[in-house]
């Protein structure tokens, strides 16, 4: 099974989780990503495991989710929907990562993560205050027309 087939296998309604935030060290597949709708950047950017959750640190008070992807990069996801990888598909998810790149081995609760070399924080779930992220407001407007 290649990574695109894996993503399609996970993206079924019974795997969709509408939760407060993804759980650290669990594997997920993301929903749609702007700029990567058809895997232009790479399908590996659609799956990975959570290394840190930063509560209410994103725009409009959303959580920032730091995910390690199979290519080794950690990318921040916010305002994103997630599909949880089932226990049945977990061995396949793990196979996309190099040996030693796994939750609890490479990524632990004692590692300090930063975003663009700023706002360092240690822990699996941290608050905005713990990572000293400035509060971001913002406005949002939308016009619907026929």
The major pleated sheet works out as: 7 strands, mixed
Enumerate how many helices there are, as a single number: 2
**Rg, Å, rounded:** 16 Å
- Quaternary state reads single chain
Number of domains: 1
SSE arrangement, N to C: HEEEEEEHEEE
Contiguous low-pLDDT stretches (5 residues minimum) are: none
Please bin the fraction of helical residues: under 10%
Main structural class? mainly beta
Q: What spatial form do the alpha-carbon principal axes imply?
A: globular
3D architecture notes:
The protein has 146 residues and is mainly β. It has one domain. The chain is 10% helix and 27% strand. The strands form two sheets. Strands 1, 2, 3, 4, 5, 6 and 9 form a seven-stranded mixed beta sheet that branches. A two-stranded antiparallel sheet has the order 7-8. It is globular and about 40 Å long. The N and C termini lie far apart (43 Å). The model has no long low-confidence stretch (mean pLDDT 82).
Keywords:
2 helices; 146 residues; mainly beta; 9 strands; two-stranded antiparallel ribbon; 7-stranded mixed β-sheet
What is shown here, in short?
This protein has helices spanning 3-10, 90-95; strands at 16-17, 27-30, 47-55, 64-68, 74-78, 82-84, 112-115, 118-122, 125-127. It is mainly beta and 146 residues long.
Draw up the topology in text.
Blueprint: H1 3-10, E1 16-17, E2 27-30, E3 47-55, E4 64-68, E5 74-78, E6 82-84, H2 90-95, E7 112-115, E8 118-122, E9 125-127
Parallel strand pairs: 3-9
Antiparallel strand pairs: 1-6, 2-3, 2-6, 3-4, 4-5, 7-8
């Amino acid at each position: 099974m290649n990574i695109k087939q894996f993503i399609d296998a996970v993206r079924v309604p019974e795997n969709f989780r509408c939760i407060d935030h993804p759980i650290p060290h669990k594997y997920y597949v993301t929903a749609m990503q702007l700029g990567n709708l058809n895997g232009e950047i790479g399908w590996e950017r659609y799956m990975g495991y959570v290394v840190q959750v930063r509560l209410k640190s994103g725009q409009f008070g959303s959580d920032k989710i730091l995910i390690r992807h199979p290519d080794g990069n950690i990318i921040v996801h916010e305002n994103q929907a997630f599909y949880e990888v089932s226990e049945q598909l977990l061995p396949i998810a793990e196979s996309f990562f190099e040996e030693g790149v796994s939750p609890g081995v490479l990524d632990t609760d004692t590692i300090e993560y930063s975003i663009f070399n700023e706002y360092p924080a240690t822990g699996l779930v941290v608050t905005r205050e713990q990572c000293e992220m400035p509060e971001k407001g913002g406005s949002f407007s939308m016009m619907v027309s026929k």
